[in-house]
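Reopening this ticket.

The earlier resolution said the output was attached, but the attachment link was broken on my side. Pasting everything inline this time so it's all in one place.
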Amino acid sequence: MRARSTGLWLTIAVAAYIALWVLVPRATFISVLISLIDGLLPFAPPTFAVALSVAGMLLIAAPTVAFMAVQIAMVYFFSRFNMTWRGLIAVLFGSLATAFLAALLIIEQSGISAKMGRNPNLREALYIVGVYSSILRVPMQLAIITAACSLGYAVSLRVRDKNLLLPVVMFAAYIDLWTVTRGPVSAMLKKTPEIAMAVGAAIPAAATKVFVPQVLIGPGDFLFMALVFAAVHRLGLDGARNYWFVFAGMTLGMLAVSLGFLPYLPALIALAVSVIAANWKHFRLSRQEVVSVAIVGLVLLASLPVIWAALKPAHQQKPVIRHSVPSKPH
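Inline output:
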């Protein structure tokens, strides 16, 4: 009965995801309402102006909130299934095969091969897939999300004690901070952004009439969400509480970036804070475990200034102008 109910809710979440993917770019009423609010603001009394500003921000945030709710719900209900290693491997390879097939269809539909007279190389193929904005992107993104979730679920099978969630999410947040700011993700976004566009789950901007990615959620974020939710379900923790905490934390982080309050925020930091807050009363650490976690936490915190110092843009030195002095004739 639980599997049937979980399957139903997962189907509803997937259907909602597809509906949002199709409808949000076409939701022109959002831009109309925002323009109306902008027109009323100069003439509104202070109290009403504040209310209008809040309403405008809610309209801007609504698509992101809806997408985050649905995407996290997909991961949550996927993680409720009782799966074995064999089943997870089947899901993983099936999802990867589906994503690969969708990518091939996207490349074929683009007609690039005929125009170039050859098949595109890997980087060209990733670029084609990354900028593609039609309906084939939906099954590809769903397949990538499913593959990431199956990996996260598989890793969660090694989390056999609820106390292990604490160091797991702490290290995940720390690693995410490094990868996003200085590590491979940062390098990929700077040098080969087409890879991020191809494999990331994009949240589209509203009222653009075509799919225009606004923010991206990487496969690693889905992997760790699945790890957490699968462990939560298996270890008897409050699944619904964890869903709402994760939804609130990660959505606020996503909005902080998309609305320009923060330049970036590694999503796993928001995930770690949410999971720790949701399950703090359930952690039962021995004195030795408390000391170990505290030491790890202090080491991570102590190293943050070093990371932030490394992230600061280097001060450009003024060019040294060397004047040539003519030599005296001998």
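Reporter confirms the inline version is readable. The first strand starts at residue 201 and ends at 204. The chain has one domain: 2-309.
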